[in-house]
Amino acid sequence: RSGGAQLFSEFVATFGLLAVIWGCVRLRSSAVPFAVAAYITAAYWFTASTSFANPAVTLARAASDTFAGLRPIDAPGFIIAQLIGAFAATYLFRWLVPTLPKDADAVIVPHDEKDKR
Questions:
Q1: pLDDT digits over 76-104, tens only?
Q2: Which long-range contacts (CB under 8 A, 24 or more apart) does 71-77 make?
Q3: Integer Cα distance of 78 and 52 in angstroms
Q4: d(Cα 76, Cα 89) in Å, to the nearest integer?
Q5: How large a percentage of the chain has pLDDT more than 90?
Q6: Which tens digit of pLDDT belongs to each residue from 60-76?
Q7: Are the C-beta atoms of 79 and 58 separated by less than 8 Å?
Q8: DSSP states of 28-64 as a string?
Q9: How far apart, in whole angstroms, are the C-alpha atoms of residue 59 and residue 73?
Q10: What average pLDDT does the structure give for the chain?
Q11: Which of 46, 84, 90, 105 is the most exposed place for a label (fewest CB within 10 A)?
């Protein structure tokens, strides 16, 4: 798995994943888990890279020796494409929705202070 199409697919997959998350945070934060699951399912089928969309997944797949794995030499390119996609989506949504950092707090599940122990 290498080449420009694979790397561009990873950029698009990661950008789309963050766009789904930021969009749900703004409109309905309780929908984030379902929206992410639906997006990853679609991105798996419709991107050339099968949508790793996460550096942790990329590292795990590079460490596996299976047909679904990724050659360790290709992992840095995938991770760079993912980071660029993540930054691009984050900055685009920060520009489109300036109040997003405040809205993002709604995603965190409330908990009691005594649970911190």
A1: 999 999 999 999 999 998 898 887 777 66
A2: 71/1, 71/2, 74/1, 74/2, 74/6, 77/2, 77/6, 77/7
A3: 8
A4: 20
A5: 31
A6: 888 887 776 788 898 99
A7: yes
A8: -GGGHHHHHHHHHHHHHHHSTT----SHHHHHHHHH-
A9: 11
A10: 83
A11: 105
Tokens standing for 102? 């405040």
Q: Hey, where are the domains in the chain?
A: 4-107
> What are the tokens at 45?
């089928």
pLDDT band at 38 (very low <50, low <70, confident <90, very high): very high
| Of 31, 35, 13, the residue nearest 86 (C-alpha) | 13
Q: Among candidates 41, 79, 39, 42, which has minimal Cα distance to 58?
A: 79
Q: Residue 69 carries which side chain, given as an amino acid letter?
A: G
Contact 38/110 with Cβ under 8 angstroms? no
CB atoms near residue 38 (< 10 Å): 12
Structure tokens at 10: 């990873």
